[in-house]
Amino acid sequence: MNFGQRDDPELPRYAGLATFALLPTLDSVDRAEIAILGVPFDSGTSYRPGARFGPAHIRENSRQLHPYHAVLDAYPFRAMQVADAGDVAVGPYDIPRAITVVERAARRLTTAGSRIVALGGDHTIAFPLLRAAAEVYGPLAVVHFDAHLDTWDTLHGASYWHGSPFRRAAEEGLLDLAHCQHVGIRGGIYDTRELEDDAQAGFQIIRSEAFLTDTPAEIADRIRARVVDVPAYISVDIDVLDPAYAPGTGTPEVAGIATAQLFAVLRAMRGTRIVGADVVEVAPAYDHAGITGLAAAHTAWELVTLMSLA
Ligand SMILES: [Mn+2]
Q1: Nearest-5° Cα angle at 257, 251 to 259
Q2: Which of 22, 163, 219, 277 could in theory staple to 6 by disulfide, Cβ–Cβ 3.0 to 4.6 A?
Q3: How confident is residue 279, by pLDDT bands cut at 50, 70 and 90?
Q4: At a CB cut-off of 8 Å and minimum separation 6, what does 267 contact?
Q5: How crowded is residue 27: how many other Cβ atoms within 10 Å of its Cβ?
Q6: Burial class (CB within 10 angstroms; exposed 0-12, middle 13-18, buried 19+) of 297
Q7: Counting beta carbons within 10 angstroms of the beta carbon of residue 289, is it exposed (0 to 12), middle (13 to 18) or buried (19 or more)?
Q8: CA of 4 to the centre of ligand 1 (A)
Q9: Which domains does the chain have, with CATH numbers?
Q10: 73: pLDDT confidence band, cut at 50, 70 and 90?
Q11: Where are the transmembrane segments (predicted)?
Q12: What is the distance in A from the centroid of ligand 1 to the CA of 148?
């Protein structure tokens, strides 16, 4: 039997401690097929800092997540044991050390049989999370929703920062280079060599403008054709959304997609074998009325639901 969300008719959803979706903590249920893992780390941020406060903000904005997913006709928390594994104990001063710490925390969960949905944190954290997932599942098909490529090399002398996780992952053989896909790209480019490097790292690009002409189902078809049956890791940088839908993020880019468009694409990916996921770059200091926190919490719920179905 799986333990679901807190069920106390006397305690309103807005009251009490906020675990993700008011789910049980991992230590209270012992095992989880899907573990929600906070990674409060943002020392890899290149522009506006603050994503270290993302996990707490996402949890606080996840109180209205309900057991039943009406569009996918699914009860994700009944189908699988989903639990909140808390936050990684990671400090801000040493990025390589933080990568080791996050990888170790993720491996504890993956070797115990959990698939992870991580709450960031800046995008640097995808790299150690990919290490842990690839160790179990082999080279991964990364489906990366983001305004930015994140396959850059060094910045300010740092190899590990929030613009390089997928380049470092490709170099380490963590990615299946024939099956990775960016979605929602529109950020600035210094030189077209960056696009050549990006292709070398295994990615094809669906730009944000594609959403003006193609339906979400068509875009999902392109993603599925790219991923095929390779184990998929879904990484959602909340800045894939337009700043109108996600102002609370470190490197916002205008002319992005809507939350509903993101969800329509994710739902149309039903059946994809997702072995890990993250929702990153939520920086609550720039948020308003919980817009970004709500978008991130519900994105994580969409990912959990997809994972509960395949
Ligand atoms: Mn990113």
Answers
A1: 100
A2: 22
A3: very high
A4: 71, 72, 216, 302, 306
A5: 10
A6: buried
A7: exposed
A8: 31
A9: 20-309 (3.40.800.10)
A10: very high
A11: none
A12: 6
Ligand 1 center to 136 CA (angstroms): 24
* Integer Cα distance of 104 and 194 in angstroms: 31
Helix/strand/coil for 299: helix
Q: How far apart are CA 301 and CA 307, in angstroms?
A: 10
Average confidence score pLDDT of the chain: 98
CA of 212 to the centre of ligand 1 (A): 22
The two three-digit tokens of residue 291, written as one number: 């817009």
Average pLDDT over residues 103-118: 98
What separation in Å is there between the alpha carbon of 17 and the centre of ligand 1? 29
The answer to whether the pTM exceeds 0.85 is: yes
d(CA 308, CA 115): 10
d(CA 26, ligand 1 centre) in Å:
28
Cα 147 to averaged position of ligand 1 atoms, centre (Å): 7
Give the pLDDT confidence of 127-179 residue by residue, as tens digits. 999 999 999 999 999 999 999 999 999 999 999 999 999 999 999 999 999 99
CA of 31 to the centre of ligand 1 (A): 30
List the structure tokens of 137: 């599942």
CA angle (38, 33, 225) in 5-degree steps: 90
CA of residue 65 to ligand 1 center, whole Å: 25
151 Cα: distance to centroid of ligand 1 (angstroms): 9
Which DSSP string do the residues of 253-270 spell out, in sequence order?
A: -SS-B-HHHHHHHHHHTT
Q: Could you tell me the distance, in angstroms and rounded to a whole number, from the CA of residue 150 to the centre of ligand 1?
A: 6
Distance 185 CA to ligand 1 centre (A): 10
Give the pLDDT band of residue 310 (cuts 50, 70, 90): confident
Centre of ligand 1 to C-alpha 237, Å, is 5
What is the DSSP pairing of strand 115-120 with strand 274-280? parallel
